[in-house]
Amino acid sequence: MRLEDIYQSPKPVISFEIFPPKGENIQEKTDVLFEELKILSKFNPSYISVTYGAGGSTRETTLGLVKRIKKDLNICPTPHFTCVGLCRPEILSYLESIQELGINNILALRGDPPKGEEKFVKPKDGFGYANELVEYIKSNTNLNIAVAGYPETHQECACLDEDILNLKRKVNAGASVIITQLFYDNKFFFDYLDKTKNNGIDIPIIPGILPISSYKQIERIIELSGCKVPESLMKKLEKYKDNKDDIKKIGIEFAVEQCKELIDNKIPGLHIYTLNKSAATSGVLESLNL
Ligand code: FAD
Fold it and tell me: pLDDT tens for residues 243-257?
């Protein structure tokens, strides 16, 4: 099914994100991942998105997972794709392999600068920004295109207003859906909805939700994404940081309340970053009982 049709649903659409396992014993890790996905499939996700490793490090494994999600779980997969270091013919060839698998959707991203480089350098005969990639996908394929949004502003951008003008370029180029970076303070998301609407962006904007499952994890997330965690939540996490079970419980309870408020505000769906595990996501969705 195409993303634009999926988000016609009157009920909030549930979708999950996974990443390709890395390191040794990939086959074994992939089998474990599919056991987790089988557990999560009882929540009837409308699609599962699969990340694309930085700099194309998971080109083949991303496609392998996409294929298996479709075949083994009969769930619609959505591969992520970044254009880091690629020229147009290479991009086209990858897009063709996606289409040959019978996939309808793609999450089109520019990607981060390669490790060790501070600025993104446009590859020769490639693209400097995601809006150019979206335009290329639109004119060369029949794929339905999702793009990334940043309620707390993308780290390279000077301010949210400018970032939203750049988001608009992706929408004008043919994106059908926006999936956001994770956040913990809904205020950022609601402000984002207001600002995008004022800028004429009228495609579905889907909040990205990551239930906190460990103290170390949230420290790393703050460092990587720069997202703000509400003070009251941070205090609670600090208080119980030595008890793993308490942290998991706090993480689920917070995510449930966060999602309830979003649903009350009529969001089109929830995109849950599962981190390849079922427990936290199941805890949240069981409580929401959608
Ligand atoms: P862009 O939309 O191109 O934006 C990049 C920066 O440039 C922004 O600051 C923007 O304001 C600015 N900008 C955009 N267009 C223009 C323009 N025309 N002129 C001037 N400035 C412009 N990374 C991965 O490597 N693999 C993944 O699978 C992956 N999945 C993701 C999924 C989601 C939902 C999100 C939110 C992010 C994901 N990322 C992933 C991270 C993403 O690759 C990085 O955040 C990257 O730095 C930006 O990609 P983008 O597509 O948002 O870029």
Answer: 999 999 999 999 999
Q: Residue 90 has what pLDDT? A: 97
Q: How long, in residues, is the chain?
A: 290
Rounded distance, CA 16 to CA 284, Å? 13
Model-wide pTM > 0.85: yes
Q: Is 52 in the pocket of ligand 1 (CB under 6 A)?
A: yes
113-121 contacts, C-beta under 8 A, 24 or more apart: 113/84, 114/54, 114/55, 114/84, 114/85, 115/54, 115/55, 120/84, 120/156
Nearest protein Cα to ligand 1, atom 43: 111
Q: From the alpha carbon of 154, which atom of ligand 1 is closest? A: 9
Tokens representing residue 91 in the block: 């991009």
Whether the pLDDT of residue 21 is over 90: the answer is yes
Asked whether 62 and 52 are in contact (CB, 8 A), the reply is yes
The ligand 1 atom at the shortest distance from the C-alpha of residue 19 is 28
Give yes or no: 17 in active site. Answer: yes
**Residue 16 to residues 43, 44, 71, 209, 265, Cα–Cα distance (Å):** 10, 10, 17, 9, 21
Query: Which tens digit of pLDDT belongs to each residue from 50-91?
Result: 999 987 788 899 999 999 999 999 999 999 999 999 999 999
Find out whether the beta carbon of 129 lies less than 6 Å from any atom of ligand 1.
Answer: yes
Q: Ligand 1 centroid vs 145 CA: distance in angstroms?
A: 14
Six-digit token string for 88? 């147009």
CA–centroid distance, residue 147 to ligand 1 (Å):
8
Give me the helix-helix angle, 59-68 and 26-40, nearest 10°.
Answer: 40
Say whether 173 sits in a helix, a strand or coil: helix
Q: What is the pLDDT of residues 257-277, one digit of tens each?
A: 999 999 999 999 999 999 999
Q: 225-240 pLDDT, tens per residue?
A: 899 999 999 999 999 9
